[in-house]
Write a structure and sequence with these properties.
BirA Bifunctional Protein, domain 2, Rossmann fold, 2 domains, eight-stranded mixed beta sheet, 18 helices, about 40% helix, about 20% strand, RNA-binding
RNA sequence: GUAGUUGUAGCUCAGUUGGUUAGAGCGCUGGAUUGUGAUUCCAGAGGUCGCCGGUUCGAACCCGGUCUUCUACCCCA
């Protein structure tokens, strides 16, 4: 059969894995520096854990795992007869692939609450799966790097997480814009416009402002049955770009005043520390509405510093007052962020921001010219390895031409050639593949040369 | 889920109105060169033309379906 992999998934070549590891390593170091501890959860969750947590769209994008055994025998007969796929799912699938790392984390916190001390700060770097149509920066299997803290309502964490965005992207050499909003502001907007019940519709529409302009937003609002009077009020909100200007607009809304106060506090904390990337308040920002209740974060590439990069958000996050409630644990507020590793990879590659150095790169390849010298080569390669030098031995005596070509393809900077003369004297020919020069060195000289 | 797009050698791609044996560059293998690569020269191998079906005397080419790629929408990392 012809080999293939599922839609939206990828294989990675060694060079790509090194680069991915560079991103994961950078994020992991930052997470640990800020006191987050690693956890892991299974790729599969019980489907009931996942369904209903990501909205209607999210449910459609969940990968369901077919039950083993004679699953049709136990299927819901009525749903089967009616060809009702949605009704059938519960009876033929009890598991699903995780859709993000936050919901499994909530489940984890509830299950392990006695083993954790709160506030509990955890990070996780694991793949998630979504049955979405693949596109640029969009895959069906992709990694997220999450840091969350649960068990404290303190807004210092909002600021801390903003700082985490800042240090990670600095480390990666990427200039970003960190956008900040608060879901309470969005609630106030809906309330002041007289349509608290249509907050979702309103936020989805205004989120598109940059893309479709104010007229486009109004058309969206029309489509969602928001009257013109309300649209005028919404337009006023959209014209605001500082918190102070915002104050009169939400003066009559309790939740609005609350949201504004929270944002101010967060910005005060942010100002008290050094953040090098731009952090902006953005009333349009409406992502992640499914369980967020307070702060909303989103990070995008700074187009002033990196013009022409077309990639949506590369990291995001927010606060959820009560994510664990649905799993039976009350009063457990949390706030967290997520780095989209795949998108960050694509951007770093496009901008050529990956470092050249590669810690896994082979330093030396030993090649032997005849069978009699293989033993010497095998001994030498292990001596080099004991000295901490990444090295390998060409497994058979072959034509030097062929072996050098192989070294070239593996991008090895040094080739150690062992012929009968070298084996006898213990002085090896060392060819520098970059410069093309060749010198003779004994074991000690070789080790000190290659370690530098 | 809606609309469009892509698929030909390992890779990047040509391929005429449907017509003999489907090509190129790069890569690969061997040789020129039995101890010197990435630059030279010569030779060679390598293809169910994504898959299934249809139209036709004849299909890489036309039609239908399907999978995949990329893109817009929806939504999102």
């Amino acid at each position: 059969m012809k080999p293939s992999i599922p839609k939206g998934t990828r294989d990675f070549l060694p060079a790509q894995v090194y680069r991915r590891e560079y991103i994961f390593g950078t994020v992991r170091r930052a997470f640990q520096l800020y006191g987050y501890q690693p956890i892991e959860t299974p790729a599969m969750e019980n489907l009931a854990t996942l369904t209903g947590k990501y909205g209607e769209e999210g449910d459609k994008l969940l990968f369901k795992v077919l039950n083993n055994g004679d699953y049709l025998a136990k299927a819901d007969q009525k749903a089967l007869d009616e060809r009702d796929s949605n009704g059938l799912v519960a009876s033929i699938s009890k598991r699903g692939l995780r859709y993000d790392l936050t919901v499994p984390f909530a489940r984890y916190v509830v299950m392990h609450q006695n083993d954790l001390s709160f506030p509990f700060k955890r990070y996780a770097i694991q793949p998630v799966w979504r049955a979405d149509r693949p596109q640029k920066g969009r895959y069906q299997e992709f990694y997220q790097c999450d840091a969350d803290v649960v068990g404290s309502p303190s807004l210092v964490y909002e600021a801390e997480l903003v700082r985490l965005f800042d240090v990670v992207f600095n480390e990666l050499g990427l200039k970003v814009v960190i956008r900040l909003n608060n879901r309470k502001i969005l609630a106030a907007l809906a309330e002041v416009a007289g349509h608290s019940d249509k907050m979702m519709d309103i936020t989805i529409a205004i989120d598109k402002l940059d893309k479709i302009g104010i007229e486009g937003v109004r058309r969206e609002l029309d489509k969602r049955d928001i009257p013109a009077a309300a649209q005028d009020i919404i337009e006023k909100f959209l014209a605001v770009d500082s918190l102070d200007e915002f104050e009169p607009l939400v003066a009559d809304s309790e939740i609005g005043r609350e949201g504004l106060a929270e944002l101010r506090e967060v910005f005060d904390f942010i100002e008290a520390m050094s953040v090098t990337n731009r952090v902006t308040f953005d009333v349009k920002l409406a992502r992640g509405l499914n369980y967020y209740t307070g702060a909303i974060f989103e990070v995008e590439v700074d187009l002033d510093a990196h013009p022409g990069v077309k990639m949506g958000s590369i990291a995001s996050g927010g606060r959820y007052a009560d994510l664990t409630g649905i799993f039976g644990m009350k009063d457990m507020p949390g706030v967290g962020i997520s780095f989209g590793a795949e998108r960050i990879y694509d951007v770093l590659e496009e901008l050529e921001l990956f470092p050249d150095s590669n810690p896994a790169q082979l330093t030396a390849l030993i090649v032997c010219l005849d069978d009699e010298t293989m033993a010497t080569g095998f001994k030498l390669v292990n001596q080099l390895r004991e000295a901490g030098i990444n090295s390998d031995l060409y497994p058979t005596a072959a034509k030097l031409n062929k072996m050098l070509k192989y070294a070239n393809q593996r991008d090895v900077p040094h080739v150690i050639i062992i012929g009968s003369e070298e084996a006898k004297s213990g002085v090896y020919s060392v060819k520098n593949m970059r410069a093309g020069e060749q010198v003779k060195l004994d074991l000690a000289g070789l080790i000190s040369q290659l370690q530098s």
